[in-house]
Amino acid sequence: MVDHSQLPELPESEEDEEVLGTPTFEVLLRNGMVMASGSYFMAPPMYMREADWDPDDKSRLLVTATDDSLWYADNVSHEGKVNATLRRLS
Q1: What is the number of domains present in the chain?
Q2: Helix or strand run (H / E) with residue 6
Q3: Sheet bearing 33-40, strands edge to edge
Q4: 3-state secondary structure of 56
Q5: Which of 44, 47, 50, 60 has a CA that sits 20 to 30 A from residue 34's CA?
């Protein structure tokens, strides 16, 4: 598991910047094991703190982000290399 708790906080920008893409939070898995995580076009950036498979749905990955928000991805394969886009749990 990757520990991102020791990463320094990025300074907040004084100016609003134009977002150049769709904000996403993703994880990379290999054979069901999370290898890396990260957010794109989100400030501040988020990383995965913890990931577990849903006990009631073996194809659903549940993720807790560094800001304690909860995310999920459905229909995630346990085989091969998978890039899963996460959605926030409401």
Answers
A1: 1
A2: none
A3: 33-40, 24-30, 81-85
A4: coil
A5: 44
Can you give the residue range of the structural domain that contains 48? 24-88
CA 51/CA 44 separation, integer angstroms: 20
Distance of CA 74 to the CA centre of its chain: 13
CB count, 10 Å around CB of 72? 16
Cα–Cα nearest to 76, from 41, 52, 43: 52
Q: Does some domain include residue 16?
A: no
- List the structure tokens of 39: 């957010």
Matching residue, tokens 């995580």: 37
- In this predicted model, what pLDDT tens digit does every residue of 43-82 receive, in sequence order? 888 889 999 999 999 999 999 999 999 999 999 999 999 9
Which residues make beta-bridge pairs with 76? Answer: none
Contact 11, 22 (CB under 8 A): no
* Three-state DSSP state, 3: coil
The pLDDT of residue 41 is 83
Q: What is the pTM of this model?
A: 0.71
